Amino acid sequence: MSCTECGFLNCYRRDKRFPDFCPGEAVPDGALAEALRQCCDDGPDSRAAGAAAEVEGRFYSKLTRVEETVEFARRLGAKKIGIATCVGLIEETRIFSRILKSNGFEHHAVLCKIGSIDKTEAGISDELKIQPGCFEAMCNPILQARMLNEWGADLNVVIGLCVGHDALFSKHSSALVTTMVVKDRVLAHNPAAALYTAGSYYKKIMTPREGM
């Protein structure tokens, strides 16, 4: 059993009780102490945790995600902001770049299609292209990360990378990664809407997909 089965959520306010299966209560004291140490020493994890907590505490429900990202970067002491963007959200990325510039940050965006290699060259069958039979560049999140690593990004921001590509980018990024926009073409980049309507308008999401 995991946290989804918990009806108390006592770990947040400690005003109820922990269920017998609570995974947090089963964490060894040594592991808990090590995690706490990483959040409290003077290392990069501690600085990121402190910056995130300050943004949450000062601006909760007051600022947009875009504004919170700027505030987080400022408190992190970041100067150079890398942007890993989807080609389909390049206009949104241009706007965000102007916002970064107006707030005194250097910025550098790398498009998902960098290198412009046809998907078939990477072993992806032509039938899996969005438009089979024509040149269609593969997404290259590893190269995106490498380019931003070489540029020396202090913080990287993901704007609309595909599911899986975002995971690869985060894996290969040397800098801390935060996500601004999560791609969801069907729901105007608001994937939580599928969760909110899973019991009503979007019930089909509860049915396993077959034959795909």
The CATH top-level class label of the largest domain? Alpha Beta
| Proportion of strand residues | 5-15%
**What gyration radius follows from the Cα positions, in whole Å?**
21 Å
* Net shape: globular
Distance between the termini: 30 Å
The number of strands is: 4
- The averaged pLDDT comes out at 94
The biggest beta sheet is recorded as: 4 strands, parallel
Total domain modules: 2
Flag low-confidence runs. none
Write up this protein.
The chain has two domains: 23-62, no CATH class; 73-181, Rossmann fold (3-Layer(aba) Sandwich). Helix 2 (29-40) crosses helix 3 (44-59) and helix 3 (44-59) packs across helix 4 (65-76). It starts with 9 loop residues before the first helix and ends in a 16-residue tail after the last helix. The protein is built from eight helices and four strands, in the order H-H-H-H-E-H-E-H-E-H-E-H. It has helices spanning 10-13, 29-40, 44-59, 65-76, 90-102, 141-151, 165-172, 192-196; strands spanning 80-85, 106-111, 155-159, 176-181. Strands 2-1-3-4 form a four-stranded parallel sheet, sandwiched between helices. Helix 7 (165-172) links the parallel strand 3 (155-159) and strand 4. The longest helix is centred in the first third of the chain and has 16 residues, at 44-59. The chain is α/β, with parallel strands linked by helices and 212 residues long.
